[in-house]
Write the structure tokens for this entry.
Amino acid sequence: MTKARDRRRAEQRQAALDRVITVLTASLPHLDRAEAVQAVSEAHAARGIPLRDLDQHLTDHPTALISGEAHCPPVVVRLAKILHTAGHTAVVRPACTDCGRSNLDLPRLGPNGRLCINCSARSSKGTCDRCGRTDTRLAARRAEGLICYSCYRVDADVVEECAVCGQLRMPVTRRPDNSPLCVSCWVGPQHTCVSCGTVGPAKSNGPDGALCASCHHRQQKPVRECGRCGQVRRIARRATGSRPDICEDCYSGPVKTCSICGKACPCHRGTDGAWACRSCRPRLTQECCRCGRTRRVHTRWPIGPVCSTCYTVVLDAPATCTGCGRHQPLIGIAEDGTRICGACSGTAFDYTCRTCGLGGRTYADAQCARCVLTARLQQLLAGPAGHIPAPLQPLRETLALAERPRGILHWLTHSPNAALFASLAASGEPITHQRLDQLPPSRHLHYVRHTLVHLGALPWRDEELDRIPAWLDTVLADRPAGHVQLVRPYAHWHLLRRARRRATQRRRPAEPGSFLRTRVLVALEFLAWLDEHGLDLGGLRQDHLDRWLDAGNTRTYAIRYFLSWTTGRGLTCKLTVPSIPRQQPSRLMDEDGRWQLLKRCLTDSAMALDIRAAGALILLFGLHASHVRHLTATQLTRRNGNSYLTVDRHPILLPPRLARLLHQLAEAPHTRAALTRTNRGEPWLFPGLVPGRPTSQTGLSSKLLSQGIDTRPARNAALVALAGDLPAPVLASILGLHPNTAVRWAGFAKTSWADYLAARAASLRQERNTTPQK
């Protein structure tokens, strides 16, 4: 019976082996039967459990050796390694499902497939029963339970007295006499790396000789297309089923939760097993050879270790090398003590742009930031045909000549405005105002339109008014049809028509957009209220209107414009909307406080220059913040040694301190974005973030308020003081006020100009009497 059983098992084993060999030769045409039998034997799969696992897996997955599937028994990993080493390149070795490396043994099976020994150890974490650390790798079991590697290395059953230093430490090797050596005292075999020439421990022995760890890992990494940047480079993290290949430049570590700052970002594991991001990871600190501060070492040049700040400063300021005469960063020292470049100092440091040949800090692919910016602008702004559209050519030229190309590169990558420029170019459609009006209204569209107008790519238009139709379409999209039929002609043929007519007669810029939007929204709210109460415009009475006004606020009084329009068209009877009574200024700054703030604006150099100038103009002349922000450098003139500012029609003589402050502001270099610093458009004294536009009124008022200058009380106090010193007609002519407004301020200041008028009349009579008669 025993012989029969053994014979039956042998037949089953041979049948399983034949099935395995048949599948192997079918999936690998260049593999003959004898070589397949030898490979299976070398993989220890010719009998027993390995043969059973291999037979079952290949039966279910005939292409397992060419698919690289990692959910397989360990015998498949061994067999794939043997066949791949024998030269069968069609065989794809299974990769670790955690780290993606396929050149390692995969002894453990994880939830997603095979794992290497390191990833398996990382996944088997727990709480150390000795030190209490959580989420740490466990190394051994002791009486109190499982302990981590940190406790294992100092465990009493593990440590021994080192034969050289005498310290109790975990031995890493032993001498021939069995005496232990710790990691500090042990010196491994020294070899000369055949690739870089470094003398040290060898990581592996290649066909040409020993390789150090760095060269070994570099040669083990395949070279193919990166799944993130698309460049053909050396792969740092190999692809798995859920992620692509990542090259060395794009890979910055796995995304983990930093144990120090708590942010989820690319991290590296420390010696204690904790994850730390690049910012929080502890680094070697040493005295910088350039600035003398003890900081993290960014790199080591021939002149010594340098910190990150000095690294940037030196690379951004190349000079002429006394050794080779090239314009390069001077990172070495010659024998006579002069600074030289890296090549002349005998090192491999090379900071030369491979495109333009200039020396300095490189940005990517051994190119300077300027060359990278030129290439990326071409890539970002090119249309379907590969050419940049004509309206975007000024944008490309302006950005390519920016003073700080690195800032523009960051803007191209992260700004939604840059993404909108790219989408306009990629669409291939002509870039016009009508094309932009078809896009959803947003602040990014507003920025892009003003930029194109500022650069001359689009013609100028009154944006405050021309943005209303697109906004109106968005507001009326979900309104009842009856409301739309009333509000649309009211907005287009009444509000916008009057606003455009007034815009042609206006002497200074204004922004009527907010007022028009308010009147449209109030009309829609009133129509909704009528529907809610079962009323219509034809049956609207004064008591209905009064009820609605009483339930609202001063904003609802803007309904007078809509009702005036409906009454003129016979849609409603004549109704009365009460006027909001004029109120006297209630917020006034005291004179002492005003003069103290004015003195601070004129003398405090710690305050920002634009805040000082704007505050002085408001505190001294009572200008509105909307007038101040629209001032240009052309309104500031010099004549006969004096400086004048033309606010309206007549120039105002400026005090010397204020004149110097405004001229300094006009001549100061702009700190705004590159698109704002162009020479196109109005030379604003207070430029804003949007190209071609001044700073916003809200932003300017917020800056002044942060310095204790509240614009409303400051302007009121200044106008009261001026109305007490100047006649109303003079005040109106120099500040651009309406004559009625100037008269009201004069009345509020309780000033009588009868004496002035009498003196003026007497002066005219005297001139008439003294003039000789012809």
The mean pLDDT is 82.
